[in-house]
Amino acid sequence: MSLLTRPSFQARLSTLVIQRGMKRKAKIPVTLLKDIPNVGTVGNVISVHRAYMRHELFPKRLAEYVKRYTGPLDRNKVAEEKEQAEAVETTVQSTVSHNKIHNVALKNQELIDKLLDVKSLVFERNVMPKEDGAEGDSQALYGSLTKTDVVKLLEEVHGIVIDKEALHMDDKIKSTGEYTCVAKLMYAGQTTLKLHVVPSKADS
After folding, report:
1. How does DSSP classify residue 149?
2. What is the set of domains in the chain, with CATH numbers?
3. Contact call for residues 24 and 50 (beta carbons, < 8 A)
């Protein structure tokens, strides 16, 4: 049996291939030579992907590879550098999260401002004939009015695009009359829209 066909050799070869694949994806420690926003300051040791170091940081002289030390390990220093790298990564993640929240807040505030300009929404609907002796002015609708109808009218008439999950109202409005719909937007508050459901002109 040749060396290549031996089970033990094939197993070792498979292990080496897997380990090499893992190494390619692993992060490596580098030392920053300049301050980089949202990444770290000069002198910091951080962990980055090999490709990022090879194609971005190293060619631009923004960072250098951490030289492997072959002498006795200074465990305190190693632990300190690890803590610094973890702290930088935490700061970056926190900054990214803060920016996302800020962008959502700005977008939703603009949406609230547009909704405040909408005095009311009028929906014309076909209505059923009123039964003899029925009291009140309300008339039953053919079908119903839903959040989807509100979203559609806001976009078509006012150019406002909003997710129906942000709207809070009766699930289905089944008669004419006046109703309210509350728009709640994260980090921006809420506003109330007035809904007027009236008979279509054909039923007037």
Report:
1. H
2. 7-108 (3.40.5.10), 111-203 (3.10.430.100)
3. yes
Strands in the chain per DSSP E: 27-32, 45-49, 63-65, 120-125, 140-145, 167-168, 173-175, 177-185, 189-199
CB burial of 140-158 (b: ≥16 within 10 Å; e: otherwise) equals ebeeebbbebbbebbeeee
Look over the chain and give the mean of its residue pLDDT values, rounded to a whole number: 80
Q: Which two tokens stand for residue 15?
A: 């292990």
Strands 45-49 and 27-32 come out as: antiparallel
What's the pTM?
A: 0.50
Question: Rounded to an integer, what distance in angstroms lies between the CA atom of residue 132 and that of residue 96?
Answer: 64
Q: Nearest CA to 122 among 163, 160, 157? A: 157
Q: How far apart are CA 58 and CA 53, in angstroms?
A: 6
Cβ–Cβ under 8 Å, residues 162 and 154: yes
Tokens describing residue 186: 């994260």
Give me the residues paired with residue 32 across strands. Answer: 63
pLDDT digit string (tens) for 35-90?
988 888 888 888 888 888 888 899 988 999 987 655 555 667 667 767 776 776 67
